[in-house]
Structure formats: C-alpha cells, structure tokens
Amino acid sequence: xxxxxxxxxxxxxxxxxxxxxxxxxxxxxxxxxxxxxxxxxxxxxxxxxxxxxxxxxxxxxxxxxxxxxxxxxxxxxxxxxxxxxxxxxxxxxxxxxxxxxxxxxxxxxxxxxxxxxxxxxxxxxxxxxxx
Length: 131
Prior knowledge:
The chain is mainly β.
C-alpha cells in the first residue's frame, strides 16, 4: 500500500506480450540476500498501456503483485509517497527494463546511504509536507 504525501501520481497499468523483437527486456527479480537482488533475463517483450489511475495528496492505494504498473508524477510535478510493504506473497517479481539494459543476468545491491544524505532528503520532504 502507498499513501501520496505530496503532489499526485499516476499508476500506469500495462499488459506484456513476449516477442523476440520486443522493445523491453523482461527479467525475473528474486531476493538474493538482505540487500541484494538477482535479475534473471527471460527475453524481450512489448508493453501495452491498458489503463491509468491518478491518486492525489492524502489518497491511499494498493496494487496487487500481479498488476504490471509504473508510477509517475502527475503533470510532471514533484510527488512523494510512503510505502508499506507487507510480507511477500511471491518469491518472484516480473521486471521490464528499457532496451538499453544488457540481456544478461545480474546482481543488484541496494545502496546504503550515509546518515547525512538521508537526513537532507527527509528535511526536503518535510518542507514539502508543511506547505
């Protein structure tokens, strides 16, 4: 579940179709440790946008794990959400990346940010929330 704190977002909903000449790279995403994830290349696909839902400040929304979606700020403005992630109900997530990503398996390590960087981001968010 997510709650929009600042601005508004659009959840773009997509359908995927596997095709050898597809514009998008399809990967299976699995957890590979506390801060690491594995991307396993599956093939290429084309994505078709089949819907969109806009959520404004103060609204809460949820997307099921089977819903292929992308979140973008509405109107090109700034947006921030708070996300609550419950216990995973799937071991694998389907990920689609732009065509410039290599067609290979890879490991992704989540970055660890220094405290001063996190504090600066939180202060900037706080300033947006009180306006």
